[in-house]
Write a structure and sequence with these properties.
Blueprint lengths: L1 H4 L4 H11 L16 E4 L5 H11 L4 E4 L9 E4 L6 E4 L2 H4 L4 E4 L7 H12 L2 E7 L2 E6 L3 E6 L14 H4 L2 H6 L7 E4 L6 H11 L5 H4 L34 H11 L5 E2 L1 H20 L12 H17 L4 E2 L1 H16 L12 H23 L4 E3 H11 L6 H11 L2 E4 L3 E4 L6
Parallel strand pairs: 1-8, 1-9, 2-5, 5-8, 10-11
Antiparallel strand pairs: 3-4, 6-7, 12-14, 13-14
């Protein structure tokens, strides 16, 4: 575990550690407290890290891909007897453990819908076949990973989280259903690069373990101007590796506790959430937060504070536990902050593009109401020119309207305009 901790991406690993202590109970009527996390980006050892998380979260963990069996209950034939059997599905079979979903952008649409059901509802009613009906509880923590569709699958820090998401997830707004989104990317760090190169060449990096970990916290003055002190998320070099069986038993015992939230801790969490909400609306440079801030983030702060108290086997969530939970979420959000020259977009340019798109859409709707609902690509280009749309954006605009359902592509390179009254 020490080798994974020293491999970089510490905010992500602290968040995954607290997520392991969340949940662990519940029934069909009580809230479960499970935290669902989406990791965007690709890096060295991502699959190994996720599989390690699945092994440590009790009572059971599993890793699934697009080729895995159905997530929800389904009927299957027994290989030995040939009889039809009712399978509970992957999500129900892990109980209150962890379900690791790798590259969810490659999942079929029905599998992505099943993930949404597991996040939104504590149970699912399914009819896997004729005459079969069942209600299955869903208590698993879903930790999913997605690979950006551009830049060779690497997370581009100059772009926002929404721009880094694959197109299939972006159109469904799947990222807003998760409690927390985390970025995974490679950064230039001499200490980490030396450590990873030693691991790859099968050398024992004992000399590197005595070196203090390099700072992993980016500048925080944009998010909290009143906090310039050192971060408690910095790692020391004298970490001791914990055996996976011991860590699994420790987490299982800690998850049986139900700490009470103190009034001071509740006030700390509330102030932190309100501050993030105000930053996303009042500060123009923090507009990227509006893609992430939602009431689920408040649930994340609460669940992480309870998890932090469970780590100490405490029956009360103190202010210290709440502050450390806020810091974990804050550092994770800072990794999502766009950096570089292209991170600050011109709001006037963005507004002008939106006006062009609106004029083009209004012109298409007017043509559809007059009986001209099927248009060729040339006719659509002529309507775009009349509406003042830049021709270099015509192909991108056409694909966007097709994905949103305003245009339906037909044979012969033609498109049918869907009127708003039909949607």
């Amino acid at each position: 575990y020490q080798r994974r901790v020293h491999g970089g991406s510490e905010p992500l690993k602290f968040a995954l550690t607290l997520a392991a202590f969340c949940g662990g109970g519940g029934n069909l009527t009580e809230p479960l407290g499970a935290v669902h996390i989406l990791i965007v980006g690709d890096s060295f050892g991502r699959s190994q890290l996720l599989r390690h998380v699945a092994d440590c979260i009790p009572p059971k963990g599993c890793c699934i891909t697009a080729q895995s069996p159905p997530l929800h209950p389904h009927l299957g034939r027994d290989a030995a007897t040939g009889e039809m059997l009712l399978h509970a599905g992957v999500l129900a079979s892990v109980g209150s453990g962890a379900c690791i979903c790798e590259e969810i952008e490659k999942f079929r649409p029905e599998a992505q819908v099943a993930l949404l059901d597991a996040i939104e509802w504590p149970h699912v009613d399914a009819s896997p076949g004729p005459g079969a009906w069942c209600t299955v509880p869903l208590r698993a923590s879903i930790i999913a990973s997605a690979t950006p569709g551009e830049a060779g699958g690497r997370y581009q820090r100059s772009r926002s989280l929404l721009d880094n998401l694959p197109r299939s997830l972006r159109s469904r707004s799947l990222h807003r259903r998760f409690h927390l989104c985390l970025a995974l990317f490679e950064t230039a760090d001499e200490y980490r690069d030396q450590f990873i190169s030693s691991l790859v060449t099968n050398r024992t990096p004992t000399s590197l373990l005595s070196v203090s970990a390099s700072p992993i916290v980016p500048p925080r003055d944009n998010l909290y101007d009143d906090d310039d002190g050192p971060s408690s998320l910095e790692l020391s070099a004298d970490l001791q590796a914990l055996p996976s069986p011991f860590l699994r038993d420790y987490i299982a015992c800690a998850r049986s506790l139900q700490p009470e939230l103190s009034a001071a801790a509740a006030s700390t969490l509330k102030c932190a959430y309100c501050k993030l909400c105000s930053l996303s609306t009042e500060d123009a440079s923090m507009g990227w937060l509006s893609e992430i801030i939602s009431p689920r983030l408040m649930e994340t702060l609460l669940h992480f504070a309870v998890a932090r108290a469970r780590v100490d086997f405490s029956t009360v969530v103190s202010v210290t536990h709440a502050e450390e939970a806020v810091e974990v979420v804050r550092e994770a959000l800072l990794d999502l902050q766009p950096q570089g020259p292209s991170s600050h977009r011109d709001p006037e340019r963005k507004s002008s593009k939106a006006k062009e798109d609106r004029r083009f859409l209004v012109a298409l709707m007017s043509a559809a109401r007059t009986g001209k609902s099927v248009l060729s690509t040339g006719e659509l280009r002529q309507v775009a020119q009349t509406s003042g749309v830049a021709m270099q954006r015509f192909g991108e605009l056409l694909r966007h309207l097709n994905e949103q359902g305003f245009l339906l592509q037909q044979a012969g390179g033609k498109y049918r305009v869907v009127d708003c009254d039909e949607m």
